[in-house]
C-alpha cells in the first residue's frame, strides 16, 4: 500500500494508490489502469443506535481496546498536516454512502464465476490483461493463483516454503448468513474455527516466517486465532495491529461502540515462526474500498519485518491478486475483473 503519512506507530495509507502503481504499463503498452474511484468515495458514516446490553468480561476488555484505538485516531488526526487532509478529501468525487454501496453490490453480483480447479499466473515483471474463460482479468507481475478449496490447494503446495503468510478467513458472521439466505450464489462458504486450524500450512512456513491473520472483533474468533489456529499451525502469537476505516473527512466509518457491537476497525493478528521482529500496536488507517472483503494490502508493512530480500508470500482466502504473491482460494480473481477498473491518463 502507499503510505501517505507516518507518525510513531500510526499510519495513513492509500489502497487505491497502491493499485494504480501496480497496474502501470499493462501489457507493455503504456496503458495504466486503476480501480474505479467511486469505490473509495463514501461520504458519511453510520451511527450505532443500538447499544449492546450484554456486558460480558470479553466485551469489557474490548471496550478498553476501543478507547485505546479512539485515542490513537485522535493523535493521528492531530499530527496529520492540514495540506494532506485537504488533498485527500478533495481527491475523490463525493457520493452518498447508499450510492457507493449499491454500485459495490452490482460489482459483487456481476463477478460471480466458477473457477474451481483453475490455476495460472504471470511470471513477467509487468502486469498483464488477459482472457480467462471468456472474461478479461488483470494479473499483477510475478504472481500466481490457485482456485479452489484452501485445504486442498495448500496440500498441493507441499514442498514450497513461504516467508510471509496472510490469511483472511471466512469467519461465520450475520452479514454472510443474510446474503446466503437471499441468494446462495452471492456468498462464500464460511468456516468453523476448527476447520481453519486444520488447514495444512505448517509445512509451508519457512524457518523464519511472519503470519498475519485478518480477524473480526468477535472475542471467540480472537481467542481461536491465539489459542487454537496459531498453535495448530506451529505459530507463536506476537501482537495485534488494527485497521481503522475512515470516511474521506477522516472521521471513523461508524462510531466507536460500547461492548461487542460493530466497530470502525478490524484487527490483524500477527504471529511468527523463528526470528521475526514485529512492532507492537500498529494502527493502519485508510479510506476503505466499498467492495466486500477488499482489504488493503499489507505487503509493504510486513516485508520490513523479514530479513529476506525477496520474500516468498502466500495469501489464503484471497479475493484479489498481489504482486510477488501466491494467492489461494475460491475467488482469487474476483476483484481482478476488468469491469471494476478504469484507465488512468495522468500518473505522476
Please describe what this structure looks like.
The protein is of the alpha/beta class and about 350 residues long. The chain has 9 helices and 15 strands. A hairpin with a 2-residue loop joins strand 1 and strand 2. The longest helix is centred in the first third of the chain and has 23 residues, at about 55-80.
Strand order of the largest sheet: 1-2-12-10-11-9-8-13-14-7-4
Radius of gyration: 20 Å
Count of individual helical segments:
9
Binned, the helix content reads: 25-40%
Strand content: 25-35%
The rounded distance between the terminal residues' Cα atoms is 16 Å
What's the SSE pattern?
Answer: EEHEHHHEEEEHEHHEHEEEHEEE
Structural class: alpha/beta
Could you tell me the number of beta strands?
15
Q: So what's the overall shape?
A: globular
Q: Which stretches are poorly predicted, pLDDT < 50 over at least 5 residues? A: 45-57, 178-184
